[in-house]
Specification:
Elements (H helix, E strand, L loop, with lengths): L2 H16 L10 H10 L5 H14 L4 H35 L7 E13 L4 E13 L3 E14 L2 E16 L4 E12 L4 E17 L3 E16 L4 E18 L2 E11 L5 E13 L2 E12 L9 E12 L1
Antiparallel strand pairs: 1-2, 1-12, 2-3, 3-4, 4-5, 5-6, 6-7, 7-8, 8-9, 9-10, 10-11, 11-12
Helix pairs in contact: 1-2, 1-3, 2-3, 3-4
Amino acid sequence: MTKLTTLNAAFAASLLAILPTAANAELPAPVRAMIEKAQEADDIEAMAVIIDLADETFPGNSAELNAIMRDYRARVEATQLAAAQAEEAAKEEEIRSAGLFENWTGQGQLGAFRSTGNSSNTGVTAGLTLERLGIDWRHKLTGLADFQRTNGVTTREQFLAAYEANYNLNERLFLFGLAQYERDVFQGFSARYSGSGGIGYRVIENDDMQLSVKAGPAYRQTEFVNGASDSSLAGLGAVDFDWQIAENLKLTQDLSAFVQSGNSTYASTTGLSAGLGGGLSASLSYTVEHDTDPPLGAVQTDTLSRVTLIYDF
């Protein structure tokens, strides 16, 4: 039997004992005692039922009953607010006092891919993402590798490592810094280093959907497979969109652009993941990367389709 049912039954019994009296008489002592007993619990729903029953049975006491309910509601809401604030303060203190290797969450992924463009093959893909959320800071580490060897010959070799730090100026506006390393010999470079910083804005921020944009200056240095190198200033623009379509279905869309004189790079990754339970999900993703002026012998556009299993930890 629930607490609400128990209170109603007890209140009904009290009413039966006093119904012979006039409906407009002073609020009977048993009813008042029942109300006082109900006030000891922080249960607004149960209290409202009791007050409504008392008001229907003794309409002449509506003003007093409404005042009792109003004061009770204010006390309960104040108590609940204080408890929520205390819990929030405890969480904030826990975050502030956490060590360097604490409060990290992450995702590991392993799967297969198919590529077209400078190479056409299938192979293995693996990745790791770590994220640490603080009061004002967010740190994110990303690693991704696609690799294949056929008959002793490497036919696909692409690596990405990135670190990004965000500092919140307010709930929506933030500063960011990004350092990134890439390697893709089939696009014509053995190493490409990028550093950038700027400002970002969270356009949409709720439980089901997030959309953020960011932009700023960047510096890129590229080491080509033929031994040559190039460095230049660039501009970075990026869009990050996440949509929780259903409880176990999520759509992501990431867009980025490094714009510079000579070779500019545009990339788009669209992903769809479905939860399998136990922190495990399956993901399909499609990446398009376009270089406006790639090294001699390389095509401008590469695509990569991935099917992976992702584990959240």
